[in-house]
Amino acid sequence: MQLSDGFVGTVGNTPLIRLQRLSRESGCEILGKAEFMNPGGSVKDRAALYIVLDAERRGELRPGGTVVEGTAGNTGIGLAHICNARGYRCVIVIPETQTQEKIDLLRTLGAEVHTVPAVPYSNPDNYQKIAGRMAADLDNAIWANQFDNLANRQAHYETTGPELWIQTDGRIDAFVAATGTGGTLAGVARYLKERRPEIDCILADPTGSGLYRYVTTGTPEVVGGNSITEGIGSSRVTANLAGTPIDDALMIEDQQAVTFVYRLLREEGLFLGSSSGINVAAAMQLAQRMGPGHTIATILCDGGARYSSRLFNPQWLASKGLTAG
Ligand SMILES: Cc1ncc(COP(=O)(O)O)c(C=O)c1O
Description:
By secondary structure, the chain is α/β, with parallel strands linked by helices. It has helices at residues 20-26, 44-58, 74-86, 100-108, 127-136, 151-167, 183-195, 211-217, 254-268, 274-290, 314-319; strands spanning 16-18, 29-34, 66-70, 89-95, 112-116, 141-143, 174-178, 200-206, 248-252, 295-300. The chain contains eleven helices and ten strands. Helix 6 (151-167) packs across helix 7 (183-195) and helix 9 packs across helix 10 (274-290).
């Protein structure tokens, strides 16, 4: 028998998809790690699982306990599933700017959801800081703290990185990913660089984020206006991202991301969210820069259904000056 042990045993080991049209067009192997196929539907299932297992191991989370997190959605969704599977209560603090689809799904999964105004990290009422205070006020509770909890990065160092290495038989020339907490890029880049330091590890950044400048100048500094993308971009260097060997950064405009979201849908048959669009747009830019014959991997972070009222709504796109391409 070939069985996976419950939800927890089904996280990870996702397929690596060769994007056929884009590979043909670029002359490179453009590969997308199908993280939308995780059982909770996103790359964040890996971080959520490692954070809970690490807290259990340390004795910080005991049977019947509570997991509290400030999240733009996907980490909360992963945590809600894992809490159900392991018998914990899940409390989520989410900025009210996130899509209704994600907020509704969190409630459907049984999480206690608190929507709060979106304010900068420096404000004491930032959603992450509210989550930290809530957890501190409860017994037998943890604040998952995905941004600075290194169990997040460790998930990708121990699983996503090795999977990419094995799935490409070590023939990977570059890895590119947008970052939210930085866990994915940091864990994968650290692992791949240990295997072969010449592998280019590149950060893709949306406009309105400070990480493009962080990588290219050493100081985080916001460039450009707000982006429609969700779950990625940051004005600060998280503990997960700090010290990661990153070779370069690419800034991707929203229209480019949207164009690739629709190309993935229409040409590859893949229904994905905006961070996947940024990632694939960046992989194609990198292919152009590196020239034909290279193998470039990126992350297909989550599915498109979480964004149907925005990214897949022509009126909403038009209100942002964007088109499906
Ligand atoms: C849709 C989506 N894409 C990408 C990311 C970025 O992943 P990481 O937090 O590992 O940098 C996130 C993080 O929340 C996300 O929700």
